[in-house]
Structure formats: structure tokens, C-alpha cells
Model the fold of this input.
Amino acid sequence: MFTQCVWPFVSVTLRSGSPPLEKRFCTSSTVSDVSMVFPVLRTITQLLSDSAMRRLYRGRARLSPSELDQFARFCRRHLRLEDGRPLVVEGFQKKMLTDFFAGTTETIILCPKKQGKSTIVAAIALFHLVTTPDAECVVVAASREQAAILFGQAAGFVRRSEWLRERVKPTLRELRSRSDAGKVRVLASDADTADGTICTLAVVDEVARHRSAELYGTLRDGLGPRQGRLIGISTAGDDEASPFGRMRQAAYKLPTVEREGAYRYCRSANGAFVLHEWALEPTDDREDMEVVKLANPASWQTIPALRRRFDSPSMTSWAWARFAGGLWLAGEDSAISAKEWGACAQPGLEIPASAEGVVIGVDLGWRWDTTGFVPIRRRDEDARRDGERGDLIEVNRPAILTPPQDGSALDSEEVFGVAAAMAERWPGCTFVIDPEAGGEQLAQRIDRELGATVLTHSQKPGPMCEASQLLSEAIAERRLVHPADQELDRHVLAAAAKFYGVGWRFVKPKGKALPIDGAIALAMAIRVLNATEQVPAEPRPGVRSHGSPVIFT
Done:
């Protein structure tokens, strides 16, 4: 007599050189003897390749409850870092991904910088691509620069893994599955190409940096048809009144809110939304590295490593609080401290007439903002004082022009007159101008009528982040001296800092109509001064210029 046993599902583990990706699928087969189960399993395992197994699914692949462990094995076996070491998923990363791999629809993770966020995002996207049939994964970065970094990280993993190269094809903008229509796209937050996308996975990198909640909402609403998931990873933001700031505040009102040291966990009643956050309390001692370590769970963020970051001359108090402590700060403090700026003062300093190597940064403002001309140069060896460093930058007294601010524009002849006077004082000087907002016309006129060299410098976030940070470092390291000019002092100390993707730049302080044009002009000049000391002999590809082979973009 045979016992009739109905098996609701069969679980198959595939091993063909891959981590065991255990798939479950329903079967209506009725097995008349338990002993027949094992031959059935062997036959299925032999006959089905992993691509065929994937095609058995419709919608999101339903992996076993050990999907998180499978992800960790996938990382360890098939993902190699740039130094050749395997990617190891650490304990804190497993903690923040537990709900995600259990099927939670929205997972938000907040932690300080240098916790491996970009690396884990790339790993999640690749794992999803090779385990989900016809995967539609969109990774959205806060800026085009960060999008390029994320794509490079993921493509690098593929390039360094023979197993992945057999399954994934990198293209210019996508990672595509070789076995089905699955793909991973990496986009910047200002892209409109996510409209209409029905995602199986949406990853929002640096969600606190996105300018609006519209894209997040578009991606979230596109999850339903294929039971997709969304994961957002970010450092702390600068405005708790922003859309994401309000989302975070709402999370702390959910039924489940747990705290353990610097770690917080929030979960909705139905489990569809979770938030993980590592952050100090505002009252914590941010100069105690053992305290700061509590908010930095990555093993490589040791106390000595944190100390080195804290002691860096370019580290500011607001940046340390937000990016190492996880604290939400509005960025109201000046990006440059008055103490550090004051320490660089040499009252009455002037660059001598006819001096060589003078670079003049120009930031134009015609109706409301001021226009600033800021000349700088490397100090001559003969003029150095005892003990002064050899790379000291001298800043001359600037020319700041203020428009009527009644809606009428600043006289263009007055602006050109300042340029002409400076070109006469320092023959052979170089002007650095943003080609936007009338800068192109001014550059052409300087080139045509004064014969001076003109370099055009973009004021987009990428180049201005570099310029702002170079100025900050020069001030912190006392590699700059200035004349203690009241107008320039006011502009530099009014500049706040705003984070863009992987860097920060000078911006006007929120809610205040304070001019910072002198600081912008000075930062542009310093970036060009540093770069032109290593100018290539041949023009750079695709460069337009005025009297010079170099353009700064």
C-alpha cells in the first residue's frame, strides 16, 4: 500500500560554480512514495540551468528565507575590491539589510560617510540582476558625478569577476543580463528617464541630498506591479524641513522605535517601511573618538582612522558633526572659520605692480549679486619671510562692484574698466571667468582689447566643489595670506557649505542675502593657480579657450 504525499513546493539548490542560489517553485506533482523525492530533486537539479530556473518565475524571484546569507556568500565569492580582497558583508550591514531581504518594500539607511555605502549599493544591484528574472533595477544618485562613481563601482566588480562577466554585460550606461532582458541603470537625480519605470528594485543613493521627493515617489509608486523593493542609503541631511527630513521625523513616530547606543531602528506596523540610523546625540562629545566610533560601525573606521580625519586641516566642525557624527545640521556656520581666516591676515598686503604669475578670479553679478575681482599669485622666493612655506599664495585687495539692486543692471563698462586697470597693473595676468551670465562676452572683450589670457571656469557643482575645498585647505594649512580687506572678509566668512554628491561647495547662507562673490572668485582663482602650474603642452581635447589652451570645467 502506497502513502499519497502532496509536496507543496520543491526547493532546489544550484551550484554550477555559483553561490548556492536556492529557488522555490510550486509543483502539483503527487509523489506516491517518499523515496521518490530524492530522484526527482536530482533530476531537476541536473536538467535546469540557473537561467532556466529563473524563467520559472514570474514577477520578483522568491528566494529562500536565507537570501541575506546568499547575498553575503555572493559578495564573498564573486565580488573583488580594487585591491583584490573579497567583499565581506559586515555585521552592521547585515543588520541594516535584514528587513530588506525579508521583503520589506521601503528600507531607508542613514549612516556617516566612509561606511561603504557606494560599495554595498553596487553589490545589491548586481546580486539582484543575477537572481531576478528580467530584473528592472534603477540606481539613482544625487549628482551626475556620484552616478558615475556608482556605475564605475558596479562595472569594476563585473570586470574583476569571470563568473560575473559570463552573466553580465556592461555597456556605456547599463549593466545587462546575458540570459534575459534584465538590466541595471544608474541615473542622476535630475534625470527624467525613471518615469514610467516598473522596477523590481530601486536604489536611491544619498536620498537626503535629492532636491525634491518627486523622483522618490515616482520610483516607490512603480514598485507595485512586480512587487518591487526600494532601498535608500544616505548620510545626514542639512535641512530637517526638507521632504526627506520630514519622512525621517515621521519614521520616529512609528509603532516600533528601538535604540541601542548610536543605532536607531524604526518600523511601520505592517513592516512595509523600516529606517535604520547611526548617529550621535547633539549633546555627545564630538571630539571624543570613542564616542564618535559608536556612530561609525564599519570595522575600518577605527579610532586612529577617525582621529586622522578629525585632525585634517580641511575638516570643519559642521562637516565633522554631519559626516562623522550623523547629525542633521542646517549648515548655518561659515564654511571658513573666522579664527582660521584671521590667522592668514597680513594687513595692507599688495601684489607689486608688474608682478608675474597673477591670476584674477572674476565672479559676475549684474542686477542683485555683486561682481568680484580677486587677484592672487604665488609669493616670490625673494619676498618670503623667514620660516614661510614655499607654496604661499598672496591675495591682493579685491575690487567688489555692487549693482543698484533696484532691478537695473550694473554698467558693463564699469566692469570692463576694472579688468582693464588690473591688466595694466599686472601685464601678462590671467583672468578666470565663468562663461555663463555674460562672462563669455566679457572674456571675448578682454581677449580682443586687452590681449590678456582668459580661462573659462564652470560654476557647476563638480568644479566648484573642488575649488571650494582647495581654498578651505589653503586657509586651514596657512598656505594663503590676505590683506584683511573688510569687503573680502565679509564675503569669505558669509559663505556657507552645501554638500553635492561626493563634495561640498560655497553657497549663500540660507535665508540671508549675504554676498559671497569674492569667496567664489577667490576659490576659482586658486583652483586655476594650482592647475596651471602643471598645464599640459598640448590643448586638452574638446577645449575652447580665449588666449590659452586650457579651460576649466
Remarks:
- The longest helix spans residues 144-159.
- DSSP finds 18 helices and 23 strands in the chain.
- The chain has a mean pLDDT of 81.
- Residues 346 and 483 are 5 Å apart (CA to CA).
